[in-house]
User: What shape does this take?
Amino acid sequence: MTDVQTRPEAENATAQPACGGAGSSRRVVLAGASALGVGCLLAACGTDTAGAGSNGASGGDFSNDPAPAGSKGADTGSTTDSGSGDTGSGGGSALALVADVPEGGGVIKGDYVITQPAAGTFKAFSKVCTHQGCDVTEVDAGAITCKCHNSKFSIEDGAPTSGPAKKPLTETKVKVDGDNIVAA
Assistant: This one.
């Protein structure tokens, strides 16, 4: 035989109205508030596809080769064929002075990181990290460093050497024009 406990009818009738729907509506409100809080927390954490906020990046998916910041000049310079009419004086505006870029190091100027991996060889890369769109902040000991998540890139080709970044910094072809380094 099954042991079933029952309440007396009088107790059952008085217990129901005292609790009524208040308990369940309180639970619904608390559950909704918890869900909202968790949603806000997840949105704040973000992912690789989150917008960049104040970094000035496009806000798109950073795993797809991002265009360098200020890419109007970079795109027009990098799409020119190397064999088609580059006459020297038609080069872009100066990105940096040759004297400002140390051999074996580099500088961050405007939207670019300009490096000199070997004497007389100059390279320029976007300063926007390919991990989550932060700006790189330092060039030291042969590496370009993004302090947001400690990604490091080679000054020779912009390839990631450590950290979470998997793609190289976007390169812009440059040349020396007198005392200036300009987009080629």
